[in-house]
Amino acid sequence: MDACTLGDLLDVVGGPSVRLQTAPAGLAVPVTEALLYDAHAPLTRTPGALLLAVGVRASAAGPLARAAAEAGMSGLVVRGPDGPLAEAESAGVALLSVDEDAAWHHVHLLLASAIGARPSAAGSGLGDLFALADAVAAAVGGATAIEDPRQRILAYSTVPGQPVDEDRRTGILGLQVPGSPANSEQYRVLFAAEGVVRLPALTGSDNLPRLAVAVRAGGETLGSLWVVDDGGLAPDAEEALAQGASTAALLLLRARAAQELARHQNGDLLRRLLDGTADPAGAAHRLGMGLGPDGNPAPVRVAAFVLDSSVSAADVEQTALRLLDLVRLQCEARYGRHAGVLVDGVVYALLPAVGERGGARHRGLAEDIVGRAGQALRVPVRAGLGDVVGGLAEVRASRDDADLVLRVLGPELPVATVEEVRPRVTLLRLAEVLGERRELSAGGWRRVLAHDAEHGTEYARTLVAWLDAGCDMAGAARLLAVHANTCRYRLRQAQQQLGIDLDDPDERLVLWLQLRTLGGLGSRH
């Protein structure tokens, strides 16, 4: 497990909460723990620690910065903007600041949670919650469950012999508290209370009362603890449950920080895979996308999501971040640990493709995300899926495909795989190649378009329709909704006035390509 660095820490808590003033040793320095300064005790050597300047004014913290450096610490945290910037830079330690009215215990909890939240193969970091549930159950004397604010059960006790009821059994089986008006009322009472509450049994044959407490940190509700009360709880059950809530807050903050840090690191890794600068082997290990069942690199596909161009410039950044959250949530629900990243207004997701046949499952996921995003963001969203490639070393190629697909999508086709629009993206790439080379972009197509623009004729449209129809005059007439004689007259005039040789199959092919691509006629007639 990699050590937490200053950069990792700022990725999780940086911004309004914790601001970096200077980092003379860079952002890669390790950060091992957060320590509260005690003026009555000497500083012990603690390599990598962040020292919180408790009881010291920011403007007077220069000696503390030097002392922290001598103790091998990575940085100093002060309250307010007037910290000892010059002293910190001279001593080689980072200087961070928090709001002047920030409570030091809250700052310590925030930093300690983020430092302790390192990504691991287990993913969520919620394993300690089960141990806590068992500890609370043993201390309180009743079966215990830990929930998030959406009434999802994160952990539950397994202490033998403690009575349970039907609500607990049902909740554990589905990891979700059963919904009911009575349940909703109990949650309203719980979250309005300051401490532990006693709640009556819900209607039911064997339902029992509950002892419950909200889990909070810094004014934010993180979840709740619930204990089944069969009448045999310990005399100090309320006090023990309140202590359990305090520990649960720390664990939930750490778990959330771990998830956010893992998301950020995986997103940064995906960013480098997309531009071809990441090591595929290392990325495969981090993302859990190693070898497929045949022993070869597991196939993957890049999906790209973009907001409709109608979004105002003032809203596009915030809306794109909300789209990123939605894409991550949906992908994680299907694939577990997952990588998603926002790059230049486009949200990219890496989809595992083992067992994928024809793109139906990936396309279905993209359609679902586009539908949900349209409802949640109230903005049309389009999704392009690149080709399935043989491992992370080829992710950039799939990303290029996905980008091309986005360019040919529209309201009539908001979601597509590259295979579904292969002709369109091929013509798009041909247009780019032709336009880059003078010898490939020269020819009679320019004379045709210039004549149409000057004289109001429709020679270009007629030529494309005739060539699209396989040089069939009746077919061209149907495409243009005109008489065949009109098509015949226009083609003859184009040949005579502009020197177009329609008898030469090579010239016909080049003319068709140039008009369809460089001329911008596409498939319009």
Number of beta strands: 15
The proportion of strand residues reads 5-15%
Sheet having the most strands: 5 strands, mixed
Oligomerization state: single chain
Based on CA atoms alone, the radius of gyration comes out at: 32 Å
Silhouette: elongated
Helices and strands: which structural class?
alpha/beta
Distance between the termini: 61 Å
Count of alpha and pi helical runs: 19
Helix-residue proportion: 40-55%
The strand order across the widest sheet is 1-5-4-3-2
Summarize the structure.
The chain is α/β, with parallel strands linked by helices and 525 residues long.
Report on the architecture of this protein.
By secondary structure, the protein is α/β, with parallel strands linked by helices. It contains 19 helices and 15 strands. 38% of the residues are buried.
